[in-house]
Every structure is written in structure tokens, then in C-alpha cells.
Amino acid sequence: MMYLSLFLFVITVYSLISTNATYVVNRYDDIECNLKPELIKEIASYKNVTRTIMDEIISNGYGRTMYKQYSDFIDTFGARPSGSITLEKSIDHMINLTIENGLNDVTTEEVEVPHWVRGLESVVMLSPRQKNIAVIGLGTSVSTPPDGITAEIIVISSFKELENTDDKYIKGKIVLFDAHYVTYGDTVIYRSQGASKASKKGAVASLIRSITPFSIYSPHTGAQFYEANVTKIPTAAITLEDADLLRRLQDDGEKIIINIKMFSTYDQKKSRNTIVDLKGKEQPEKLVIVSGHIDSWDVGQGAMDDGGGMIISWFTPVILNLLQLKPRRTIRAILWTSEEPGLIGAAAYLNKHIHELSNINFIMESDEGTFSPRGLDVAGSKIARCIVGEVLKLFSPIDEMTNSGGPGSDITLFVNKGIPGASLLNKNERYFWFHHSEGDTMNVQNMADVVDCAAFWAAVSYVIADISVDIPR
Amino acid sequence: MMYLSLFLFVITVYSLISTNATYVVNRYDDIECNLKPELIKEIASYKNVTRTIMDEIISNGYGRTMYKQYSDFIDTFGARPSGSITLEKSIDHMINLTIENGLNDVTTEEVEVPHWVRGLESVVMLSPRQKNIAVIGLGTSVSTPPDGITAEIIVISSFKELENTDDKYIKGKIVLFDAHYVTYGDTVIYRSQGASKASKKGAVASLIRSITPFSIYSPHTGAQFYEANVTKIPTAAITLEDADLLRRLQDDGEKIIINIKMFSTYDQKKSRNTIVDLKGKEQPEKLVIVSGHIDSWDVGQGAMDDGGGMIISWFTPVILNLLQLKPRRTIRAILWTSEEPGLIGAAAYLNKHIHELSNINFIMESDEGTFSPRGLDVAGSKIARCIVGEVLKLFSPIDEMTNSGGPGSDITLFVNKGIPGASLLNKNERYFWFHHSEGDTMNVQNMADVVDCAAFWAAVSYVIADISVDIPR
């Protein structure tokens, strides 16, 4: 039944939107499309309304107000780690702010979330000389004994090198994974999997070179995951500077001894996904979701990751409501909770709504910065990407379209289920300089850029939620 | 007598080196020169020897060896604060290294230096919310009482604003000088003088926005000086990020209360200026001095400030000796001690040698980075700059010449006495990102750039020390 109706649906969609004539939809991404001239014309007809939305936000003060709400939110709450009281207070604040801004359709869904609390952490090099080493534990790391662990360091470049190293050289030592940053995706595996891999070879603790291309002696945290049936060893990140120092000392034949102390507690707490709806005027059951996560790491202020993405997504239904622009379908902003420990809020939402996924027409997330906007990274069928590409033409020069295959963080869970989705492309070249570090503060943000992102995000969502055709699977 | 001989000297020099024909000496700095064609020809004749020096350093391995000596020095000693045992050990190391490299003419001159030792430091914002604020005390700051000082913050933009603020708004408060970075010279006055100025208005402590244009939540230390007859109040730097946060909170009408704790000790110790001579073959009493300082702040590793400048200056007589290139005059490398607390080593040298200053033909310092070399910032008479400009032509494209009026740090004491001198121009646009912070490590250095600096520094010193004419006052 399900497959037959899906088949009929696909046939219907194609007859409504496609023709035989092909053309290149987007100057950044050579896909050949064959959308019907009527649909192309319909999409082009949104030029005036998108201009209105963007003008109201950028020039008429709405964007400035939103930025002040954002800045006040960050200054008031600061870091909002999963399971913390501060996170829950910040969620209450956003609920109240929604209602104050005239949108009453705000609900929450409870989620059980990890609550890992960092205690004192220190690393001291004892030999060949005494030196303090800046350190930051990785989320879910176990503690050391009270006196810490004192052991020799072995510096390893890659999992391959670890594999090729005899266990006897690893046993009883602290492994430092000194993998240089290539891309976040390539390098983050040392953070997420390093401890387990080192433990299997007999290491007593593991460290990583922080996952960043640039440092002013800044350690970067993030989630890590112990494999089942592996001895859980303490694991932390150090700076690029100290990783290079330890590498040079090892290359010079020095025996490097360090003491590492790490303390933390770990339990579960209740949190909430926050859902803000601007109900569609014709097909309210159909959803265009815009999202960001409201939790952050416990260092820095969570301004960039993901205060910016959270605020522009929250702002989308709020501003459209203020402008009395009700689209055909419902625009739903979701402020995911507990993204940082591993998409916990998003997984709970997926699970709860697993039988209504066909209602999600399109899903968007901004979680890679709200610097100057460039366009969208779009996942979905060719026809879905053709339609979104056509929509992007309304926003030139914010009209880049890429196809990384995995847009967003939370929304990957939905995209992997075949739901078309997109993340915000923006000039985020320095994103990982600040990511998961004390450097994630309001200072990395620029009002004009965040306002531009918000304007683009609201306008593009509006068009997708209002056009006559669904975004096909 | 002294004046008469100086007059005769000037006349003689001019007749040897100047003519009536004028030309522009340097494409970066429009000074019209009228050097005699014989001198121009003589300087041009050094092309082969400068090429040899640079080739030996850059291509034949000498530079690579020096870089390893440099890197090992930094990795072995790390930070070398004034008055510390580590600094003295690092001086011993450089003495031994000089002798190991074949140059025995190395001496030291004792200097009494400040020994300010940082203890625990913390700043916590208590209201409007609890937040740790990264802090670094300024050199020579007094301690707080054991429980710290708890007081309201007032954020002030400038000395002018402080002056225009009624004392009653300052009394009993902690002043934060939130002066945005313009240039180091413009902005550093808030660090060096802020505490005294705030104290005079009744403040109980003072903070500064760190003197840097860019931050990843990095506080920057540096020297400060209490005026006589002013109550000494504790003083420290915070990050750009927190300065902006406190500014926003004040602008929103929040009452900001912080607790600041700072502990330190302060006494005097013995240290040494280190002097490495390559004696001149014809006029050994005449000196071309090349220099950098060997001490550093107590944070970071003192790799950039001023490990790089120290090593290339030390290397100049060492490499010329190894290459058996003895110039006419003596090349003297000086590794200044205790620069950071206020040019203490340089002042002691000036004082000790005050009656022999006429022997200093030219004085150079590298203390603003050893990134890719660009040329020289030259202070001195027009004729002095004409000659140095002519010498720089040998090194095109490393041939920029500027005239800031105050080249170097230590050597300003000598330049102010009328001695011509120069500092190394280099691509140091990011210098203040790392300066006096934990970010001053080997990671900001690049081997090829440091080697290029060393090659240029040695070759340009050689020419100045060997040409037939002195650099005139």
C-alpha cells in the first residue's frame, strides 16, 4: 500500500512539474533540469514577496531587533550544555520571546538527554621539562583516579599508524593522536573514535590534537563515543601548539612523561525540543521545517554554534507572522535540544514522529555559521534540487547550490530517510577556528551578516512553503 | 673639543660620500640622495658576497641548522621571564652554543633586573550572572587581598573619557579600559599607564581590553608602570570577547559586579646581557651591533617575542665567522636581557658604555617578528639613510626602507642618542595576534621565513660593517 501510493505520488508530481526541455538550473551546480515553464514562471513570480521580506528584515529594523534579541540571549545565558539548568532556562526564554513576538503556537517535546559535567582538568608535562599543557576533556570522557594518570606519551599520526604499531609500544602509555586538520569530517574521527581505538591497543588515556586548522593556543572539545566492550579511558584535546611540541620532542628521541587529571560526572536529565509553528493556510499538515540547536558546549558562549542558526530559524515563522505572510504549508521552526552529545533531540523527534515523516515537505538547518550567506547545500532527488535551484535564482547573488550529500547536523537523520533538505551555505572559512572552544562568542558574529542570513532564510523558506508543488522525494 | 672634532668628522664624511647629483634611493621611500658614484659602485660590488652569504644560509644547510638550534632552544627552555632561573640557564646555553659553533669571543655583562612572579589569578563576574573571565595580570601589578576585590565595573573607552568622568562615578569601582586596538603604539598606553590613571580617580583596580586586533579568547600581558605617589592598584588584561560583553551589559544598564584575585611576588635578581663579537679586521673598535632580546614574558614560549630576533642576531657573527668573512668593523651580537619589563638590559648597556657610544657605527634589532623579510626600518640622518638604502638595493626584493622614527625596542635608547639604526621589516601583520600571550609558540614561525630573515640580517650587517665609509650620525 505504502509503495503503491508513493509510486502514484511520484508520477503525479512529475507530470505537474517536469517537461522534456532541459536547462542548467544553477550556475554553481551543473544539474540539467526540465521544469515546466509554468512552474518556472510561478517561482519567478515570488520576486516581489521575497524582496519585501528581505527589505523588512534588512532595512526596516526587524533584523536589528532580532540581532539584539540574539545578543541578549547569548549574554544572558552564555553556554547551554545538554542537561544543564541554564539550557532549560534558555528554552523557557525562547518560548516567552515567541509569545511576546505575537506567535502563540509554540510547544515543546520532552527528551531524555546526557548530562556530562566537566570538573577540574589538567595536563602537566613532567619530562623532559615541566610545562603546563592546556587541555579540554572530550564529552563523555571518564575521570582519572584522584592523582591522575602519569605515563609516557606516544605520538601517533593516524589510525593506520596505530594499527601498524605493535601493542607493546602502546600498552601503558598515553596515545596522542596528532592528526593534522584536513576537513572537519576527515579529522573529527580522531576525536569521536580515538579513545576506543587507543584503549583496544592497551593505552591508559588518549589525547587528540584539537580539530581546528588554526589556533592561538586554544583547545577544542567535542563529543566522543566509547565502543561497547572496550575499557573506557580518559580522553581530552590539547592545542596544535603543544601537539607540535610533543611531536618534536618525540622526534628528538626524548622520553615524554605527562600527568593527566580529569574529573567529570555523567547522568541523564530531561530537556525539550521547542517547536514554533506558523500554520499553513491551505495545507497545514505539510511542514517546511527550519531549525538550529539551542544547546551548546560548556566552553565559550555557544554564540556561533549554534546560537546564530537557532535564532534565524526561530525568527522565520515569527517574522512571517509579523508581516502577515501565511504560506500555503506550515513553517515549523525547531530548536533542537542536545545536539552536541550526538543529535539526541533530533533523534527523539524522528522517533516520535516516525509515522508522519511524509508530512515533512522540506527540512532545513543552519549549524555551520551565520556569516555572510551564500546559498544552500541541498540534498534530495534531482527534481527536488531543480526546484530549490530555481527558487535560489530569486536571491542572486545568494544563489549558490551545492550537494555535499549531508547538509546540516540534526537534519541528517531526516535526510537519510529520504526527506529533501538543505543547510545554509555561508562564508564560514574561519568557523573551525572558534568551534567548540572558548572563542565561540558574540565577537565572531557580525550584525549585518546575521541579519542577511535571517532575511534569506525566512524568504527562501516562505517560497518553498508556498509554491503550488511539493518538493518531491 | 668634542664638538669641533664632530664637526670635522661630519665635513670629512660628506666629502667622501656625497656629491651634488641627486637621485631617489629607494622605491619605497622617496629620499633624494646624492651619494658619490664611487660609493654607489663600491656598494654594488658587494653583490657577489651577499649572494654567497645568503646562498650558504638558505641553500647550503646553515639556515636549517640554525632553525633547529632555535627550535631546540625554545622547546628546551620555553618562557624565559626576567629574573628567572630559566632565563639564566638559557643564557648559559647560548654562550655554550656560540663556542660550540666556533666563536669564542662571547662575554656577558651583569645587570640587576626585575623579578615579578605571577601567582594565581582569577576574575569572576558575579552579577548580572556568574561567569569566569579569562585574565592575565600585567607585569609589576600588586596583589589583591587574599579574598580578592569585589566591586562594580565601569567601562571606559579612553583616558579622555576617564578625565571627563566625575570622580564619584569611579571611586571604589574597577575601571575597564575598553580601548579598541588602533596600532600597538596608540593603544598600549592603556596597558602601561591605565592603572595609575584609574587610581588617581579613586578606582580600586583596573582592567584593560587586551592590546590585540584579534582574539580567540586570548588575554595578553605586558609591562605597566605605576606613577610615583599614586596608590598602587591591581591591574590585569581580559579578552576582547569579555571586554565587549561587559560593554554590552553596561550599555543595557546592568550593574556589573566582579571579583578579582591576583597574587604575585616582586624582587630583584641578577641577569646578563650576552655579547658575541666577530672582531673587525681593520677597525675592531668600531661596532655594527645586531640584536634581539633573550628574555620573554612568562606566558607562551617566547618563540616570536623575541626568540626569532635573538637567534638571527646571534647567528650573524657566528655564520660570518664560519664562512670566514671578517668585515672591516666588528660585528657585535647582543642578546639583551630583561627587555620586557622596560628595556632594563639595554639601559644597563647604554649606561656602562656611555663614553664609547661614538664607536657604535650602526645598531640593529629584530623584535617585531621573523616572518618573511621585507627590508629595514631605518633611523638616522638623511645621508645615513641614503647609504643604507643603497645597501638595500643589493637585496631586492627585500629592499623596502621605512622611517618610522623609532625602530626596534631596546635600540630606541641608542637611536635617541643619535646613533643610526634599523629594525627588521617583515610580514608581521599577525604579530599582535600572538604577542605576550600563550599563543607565542614555535607554531607562529615558519622555517623558510626565519632562514630568509637570518640570511638577509647577516648579509646586510656584513656590508654595513665592511664598506669603506662609516654610517654618519
TrEMBL record, chains A, B:
Gene Ontology terms, MF aspect: carboxypeptidase activity; metal ion binding; metallodipeptidase activity
Keywords: Carboxypeptidase, Endoplasmic reticulum, Glycoprotein, Golgi apparatus, Hydrolase, Lysosome, Metal-binding, Metalloprotease, Protease, Secreted, Signal, Zinc, Zymogen
Stored Pfam families: Peptidase_M28
Species per Swiss-Prot/TrEMBL record: Galleria mellonella (Greater wax moth)
Family membership noted in the UniProt record: Belongs to the peptidase M28 family.
Chief subcellular location: endoplasmic reticulum
Segment forming the signal sequence: 1-21
Any one GO CC term of the record: extracellular space
UniProt entry tagged with the keyword Membrane: no
Domain Peptidase M28 intervals: 273-451
Domain of life: Eukaryota
Coiled coil segments of this chain: none
Gene3D superfamilies linked to this entry: 3.50.30.30, Zn peptidases
Subunit structure: Homodimer. The monomeric form is inactive while the homodimer is active.
Localization per Swiss-Prot or TrEMBL: Endoplasmic reticulum; Golgi apparatus; Lysosome; Secreted
Name of the protein described by the UniProt record: Carboxypeptidase Q
Keyword Secreted: yes
GO terms (BP aspect): peptide catabolic process; proteolysis
